[in-house]
Batch of 4 targets.
Target 1
Amino acid sequence: MNYVVCVPDGCADEPSEGLGGRTPLDVASMPTLAGLAARGTVGRAAVIPAGMPPGSDVGNMSILGYDPARFHTGRAPIEAAALGLRLAPDRVAYRCNLVTVGDDATMSDFAGGHPTNEAATEIVAALDAELGRGAGAGLEFHPGVQYRHIMVAPASWAEADCTPPHDITDRPAVWPTGPVARELREVMDASRSIVSRVAAANGTAANQVWLWGQGFQPQMTSFVDQHHVRGGMVTAVDLVRGLGVLTGMEVVEVAGATGWYDTDYEAKRDAALAALAEDRCDLFVIHVEATDEAGHAGNAEEKVRALENWDRRILAGLVDGLDGMGEWRLLLLPDHATPLRLKTHTADPVPYLLVDSVVDGPGGTYSETGVADAPLVAGHELIQRLVI
């Protein structure tokens, strides 16, 4: 039996005036998904437990079958693991976004214009030389992907309340508060001249860093011990990759996986089919970020297009490929909602789909309205329904 988990990041939404009172899932042409829903089981999942922040760290941990209330320690240490960083107990990791803050102190772009990896690495190297290891400051700056990077600091820097930059798009910047707010603000202020200087040279729109999501590295049970199947994944996002590293999953790297609208959908689909066909794993996770990025941008057209790409460029060929290998089961759901209206994540329940290639379910419609009356299921319990 082969198992696949599909994660269209942040695809759940609210009815939108710009879409005629419908959601992107209602509008998108997704015949393959509609066919799977008609023969499967649809429902409603709480991937974000009550009281926890509605981020991809919490949501993807739930999808992988780990209760965030037990395992979650923060976002940044998960991403640090993806970069190969094993944090000592006396070190804390912060997510370090490259952002653009306007002259009026408004968060005009939480992603700093989506710099290339090469341009971003130049900026992070300069930060490490002038504010981090090169300055003997007890800080380390490590490059990640595009605008997403890591700062490592002493454990004494852990206590602060920090606002995710994507929560304040086009709004006044909300600076850190708490015991180490002064230290964090000093780093963010000092970064402006460095980031602006290097960004001007390489054509990047970012003008400073934003620190948030801090935590100590979590200790997580291996995926095979947790679920008794061998797991693999493909993603362009360090956060999701880090969960794979921390749980001992096979993390497959593919060329063209960008974490943006232009990501290579077919390469991710083919990576899943190859890993299963070659018996490297029993369960494979396909994660695509594009729907989330469109939600953050408030771009309905791109969100609908990303959903249609999922259907045409992943699901259609995935089902055919799985059929050729024998029996299979599939779980599809996002890690959280990213409503176009809000341009940020919410903790609202999301629709899920379970499909068995042999045993048909009751059928239904995969959309927010299609599952509105379904009972709520804890997100971290769904993978056990998949691999029974």
Target 2
Amino acid sequence: MNNNEIQDIEKRTDYTKILDEFGISHIEEVLPRIGTNHHFFRRGIVFAHRDFDKILDRVEQDKNFAIISGRGPSSDLHFGHLILFELIRYLQEKYHCKFFMPLSDDEKYVFRKIDSLEESYALSLENAIDILAIGFKPENVYVYISSITPRIQYLALTFSTSQTYNAIKAALGFNGEENAGTVFYTCIQAAHILHPTTDHNLPVVVPIGLDQDVYMRLTRDIARKRRITLPASLYIKYLKGLTGGPMSSSAPETCIYLRDSPEIVKKKIMNAFTGGRATIREQRELGANPDICTIYDWFNKFFIRDDKDLEEILNGCKNGNLICGLDCKPRLLGMVQEYLKNHKKRREIVIKNLSEYFDHEIDLSVLKEADSI
């Protein structure tokens, strides 16, 4: 799979075909064992898995496991990132498991998303604060910056002997012109994923989008060769970008960052792509199309947790009782603004206890909020 194919996965909606291509199972197979208390599982936002049935076997035997998922710090977080970490928070609370969160500054450096590792240090802390402010407690959360964690570098080095350049080249579509760091990073990624197993004897589950599955397959190859328990994975659907296409941190118009100003948030939402008609009169008569609507997608995947409420929005959209710019966009705007206001308060609490989440010492003086610590 080359880089263009990886990006194309984000645009594809033929999920069943993709699962067959990669040997991934539908979530329905294990859903009775997980339950549908969370709307992520009721609505198919978590739609597939690989070996999560084996994780559930451990749960039913009163054995523990770990969740591993990180963040590459090259920009502020946006709402598209929150689905992943909301899922992790729910799973951690449900199963009382450990959560390991690498901040992959090394990835962003070798793929030239940042100019220096020093540049990413403050951003790593800022990203961590935003993630932890979702509702994580310091107990059983282990955060670290990848490039300054010797154990990760050691494991990556040992794993490198179980991975070939040809396998990496074929998986990522390299042409030989890439810098050596991008090749070695697959081994660092494997170290992130496998170190809870090698160091804590905890099998892991990795919640990801399908575009990241290539790294899971490379890591599972290493695990097989080294006789390490294979990592499991859960697959989530992304939020639609505000312009109707994929959401991207490098395209600000497609997303809402957690530190966007109220004015910017309003402008982005009121300009968002919808399934509405050209005129209000036409929409009253014919209804709108929620299947292509960004606003409805955000309601469905993140903001409307009550199924009855969502169904009323769906029906109102289709029968023309709801108008995008008069009803749905203002409602989403209010929800986003309320979320951001509460998130800012939670950030302040996390900042005061930030060092308790990390596996190594951190320099809090680099934070913009350092004066309030």
Target 3
Amino acid sequence: MERRNEGAMRPGPVCTARLACVMDGHGQQQAKPMRLPCPLCVVLAEVDAVGTPAARRGGLPGEQHGQSPHSRDAHQAPEQPPSRGGRDAVVPENDAAAGRKQCSEFGDTDRDPLVAEQPCVRQEGVAPGHRPFYRRVASARNARDGNETMSEAADRLADVAANIASAAERAQRRAEEVRLIAVSKTHDAAAIRPLIAAGQRHFGENRVQEAAAKWPELRAETPDIVLHLIGQLQSNKAEEAVAVFDAIHSLDRSSLVQAIAKACVKAGKQPQLFVQVNIGDEEQKGGCAVADLPALLTEAKDAGLNIDGLMAIPPADIEPAPFFALLDELAQRHGLTGRSMGMSSDYETAVMLGATHVRVGTALFGARG
């Protein structure tokens, strides 16, 4: 049995791998090299079914030696198999010890085995050297075909990030000054995980109960998640909100100031706090009136709370830019650095007008059904 030329066995990428020769059904060499189809995964099933070629007698097929097809298939392998050239080495299927020796002699755990190198021990199916290689190819195939949601989430995240960077550049700001909050309200863990896998870490929820139900498991998987409460908060939920959230964007009244202050003392921590301003003076919306903002900020300071910024939601169906500009001016007037403003339809405008936190849902998760 001739030893394979290890110097000639330098496999290239999967899609460009070449076979120096492929043994036909009778152990004979084909005249021309074959190029492996691209991608390799289309032939996995066929390759997996191929066993070790039994060594056969040279010369004409068995039927021309007077053998019947049945007896031909049942013939015994000769003691010395025919010599092979190049990188072909065939092990008699009844010689498991020789097969193992050949694997250790020529095998290389740091390279991907060629398909032409048949499994060494037929009883085990695919040879040990081939098995990890097939698993990697199958894994790559599954990543392409089975994780379309993750790919779409990554694309959406990249688009939003690019828009934020472009808007920041137009305003002569740095994109790093803007925090993107993915609004995950009403979305389950299966819809959130692709965004986490794509690198998103800041998420926004509207309700304390919903966040408390779905986020513990997700945060156990990804401990550096930062959770923002962007919906209205009842005073009797303040303690739970302080325990669950890292930031609260909806502080808007005196009773809530007192409830959050007590909850922070009890928990021994304080989340990042934004005062919500009813920037459009709309009766149906939460938030303190613009005129009441100075008094609320003073009360929060007296209660021991550190206010990080202001939050606002402009009126719908009206150009948002004037409202963003007003919130920016209010934050500057009161010495606050944070400006939580801008959603899927207007976050670029918000960035150009000073937003430090934008709350984006539909542009990242897609439209709700």
Target 4
Amino acid sequence: MDISAGMVASVSAARKGPSRTADGGFAAPEILNDSPIPLAVLLLGPTGSGKTALSLALGERFGGEIVSCDSVAVYRGMDLGTAKPTLEERARLPHHLIDLTEPDQPYTAGEYSRQARTAMREIAARERMPIVTGGTGLYLRALTEGLFAGPERHEALRARLHLSSQKRGSAWLHRLLLRLDPASAARIHANDAPKLIRAIEVCVKTRKPLSYVLGDRMLARDPLTGFRLLRIGLNPPRQALYDRLNLRCKAMFVAGLVAETRILLERYGPVKALDSLGYRQALAVLRESCSVDEAVAAAQQGHRNYAKRQLTWFRREPEVRWITGFGDEPATLRAAAELVKQNMHTADSGAK
């Protein structure tokens, strides 16, 4: 595989930002929030769009702390395939909700919502600005809107459904849900196995359709309160984004993604977390079902497809201020900083 070792540096080189202060402390905010209700910035956008670079730049400029919103970055040891902020980047500003648990431990959107809200409130209590950044749309929605208080996970049932879907395909799950809850089956895509499994699980445990449970006022969602939310979305040119993703995937493999995956597999076995993008393709190399070149190409395609799905999801988010550019570009930083300044001076009588 003709890959330059210099590509390794590209995983983090694009995320350069302002350095720490001369005494080693964190930068003081350029401007203070003059509203009694604290401002929280939510950085949205597809993978590879430069959210980390922008979060660091804004955090150092306005006195912020970073709250990760990534469903794989919560796992320890999964570093290369997740493009986590490097240790050097994490030293520049406090980061939260990274390396929380082991890859063989389940971690849910509900757990994320509870821990992220706690982190945001603690950050605001220190009179700093929470900056939520990451690409997991479900986690972001759980944070801002809450999740319905449905039944707890039934791991044995979920495992059986997951095994059956692997053997029969997600279409089988969709047909099963269609018999149990036609309304939910009409709403959930036939290929969305996680949502299908959850809907079936709710039906079995409550003996009621998910659509009925969702309509129960006692199980209503619990939206985030106490903050004014500024949603900033990154929407770089599509081909330029794909070029970056292709380069980043190559760099991950050069940096040792297959070796990292081997260590994780030996330590935890074939856990669900290893089905994540990049790790899935590295596993195929370890199992000798494809070459490294083929794995890189598959990972590149997977990341491009994932970026498309992320943009589709985030376009459904309310009141997003979209910026056409990458987060490490000066024009993007200027535009984002201006949005933050405007919202820091917005006196709002209510909080969302």
